[in-house]
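User: structure tokens for NAD(P)/FAD-dependent oxidoreductase, please.
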Amino acid sequence: MYDVIVVGARCAGSPLAMLLARQGHRVLVVDRSSFPSDTVSTHYIHQAGLLRLQDWGLLDEIIAAKTPALNKMHYSYRGIQLNGFADPVGGIDAVYCPRRTVLDEILVNAARRAGAEVVEGFTVTDLVFADDRVVGIRGRDGDGPERELRATVVVGADGFHSTVAKKVGAELYDVRPAAGFIYYSYYSGLDWGLHHKAGFNEQWFGTWPTNDGLHMLAIIGTRRLLKEFRQDVETRFQAVFDDVDPQMGAQLRDQGRREEDFRPMRYPDNYYRRAYGPGWALVGDAGYHKDPYTGWGITDAFLHGEILADRIHQGLAGERPMEEALAEYNKVRDEESSGVYDFTTTLSELTELPPFFRATMDAMSKSQEWTNKMLGLIGGIVEDHEIYSPDALERLYDDAGVEQDQRIYDPAG
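Assistant: Done. Predicted tokens:
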């Protein structure tokens, strides 16, 4: 009998298991994959996520894996340029984009070192219920016989196709249609740094230096472009760079060499799922998913995993009823992610910005101080009120020299 069984051992499940095991709880983690292994994913970890890795004692392992440190960001959205970097916080003066083969193995090993039992190559086929309460899982190691394992709490950290979420019937809410699709691969021969650029034709590209001297290059297009894109991925991929930044497009053609196959990602709609019930909880994409455009998936998995670990510990330690603790986790997750959710679903349309966001971002682009502050907001280390409170907006517009009749203070207006 375990205290907690975690289904899924990647960037939501392993940190959760690690944190619970460090508090002395008996934890089992199962995953159908074996590690190291790759998965379709963004790689970017925002400063807020790096602070979690640092607190957990794992950031040095990311750095030791020769993951490049990136301390300048080139951000562009339909002609608005934000080039700089957020002010350091907690000693974090760079960001990192590790490959999932690197990151996930570090997280799984950390869970093991903390005392969690990790079973790789395990497929969950069903949940075990008793009086409408989840009390365990059924599954098998590889091709072995099905077996049953029991726990006080079962957590689904198994992605947006979550078996746990399906079996408990976790309802969706605040669903917003997915706007685009992604193709990405890895290239040698480039020295670009971190770029995040949206053009005027519903297309975007991103570049991130990652492990092994490679750059991860990705494009996003709106759904209406997908059929045409699929007909000639190589040509269309290059064309996005040519369209959004012709100079970088020429460099890609002349200097870049694709080292791996293209990976497509047609992701589901943006959603929240109810993240708790009798004997169960959801974390990571299993419970909350948004467009990859802003690269917040990994960071949110860390943040929400830590919140959930704290609430499960409270329940297991008898400090409060478990269901009350899990309900609070769901509430806090929703409240703390709402700003990123709104920001992501707005920008991922790749269309013209609403007037308020265009006015404020254009003003920020005229000042390095405000540019860095906005990049800190994107990175999760600057709070909304530092930019969008009435007093802050007044200072922003004053610093940018925006005329009174051009100032917009209301996001709805």
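User: Anything notable?

Assistant: The mean pLDDT is 95.
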